Amino acid sequence: MKCPLCGSATKVTDTRLTELGMAVRRRRQCLKCQHRFTTYERIALEPLVVIKKDGRRELFDRGKVETGMMKACEKRPISYEAIQKAAAEIEEELRKRGVREVTSREIGRRVMDKLLKLDDVAYIRFASVYQEFDDAHKFAEALAKLNRLRRRRNQRKQVAK
Hints:
The chain is an alpha+beta fold. The protein has 2 domains: 10-42; 49-138, no CATH class. 49% of the residues lie in helices and 20% in strands. The protein has 5 helices and 6 strands, in the order βββββααβααα. The chain has helices at 62-72, 80-96, 104-118, 120-130, 136-160; strands at 10-18, 23-30, 36-42, 49-51, 57-59, 101-103. It has a 3-stranded antiparallel sheet with strand order 1-2-3, with no helix packed on it. Strands 5-4-6 form a 3-stranded mixed sheet. The protein is elongated and about 65 Å long. The model has no long low-confidence stretch (mean pLDDT 91).
């Protein structure tokens, strides 16, 4: 690979797997000007198309998933790395299904599943936007559902002990 500054040859100084093994991160250094930079190698995947509620289609963008999760997790004790990992897992799960199109509703359900494992408040925040709460009754239903899920999970943990 050529140096982006001077165009000379470069050498690889470090190589690591990233994003659940879906990419290779390489640190490089120019042999002439000593400039250091990072490159990423990813598998060229078939495009994944998202079918929106209104029928429009657009390419899947993991960044949008991360942004939505970050908004839900704002001012919560959740690391950016945890959000990135969850978004990468969602994309990987969708691609493993082997379909080229997925609904925005399916993506939203998967985001809610990941947020449920990360943080209750973030889960409720995302649900309030995703499920378009327009009154307190819907909010109360979501809280009741969250409490039922938590009770079931706690019961399973006690049985496993």
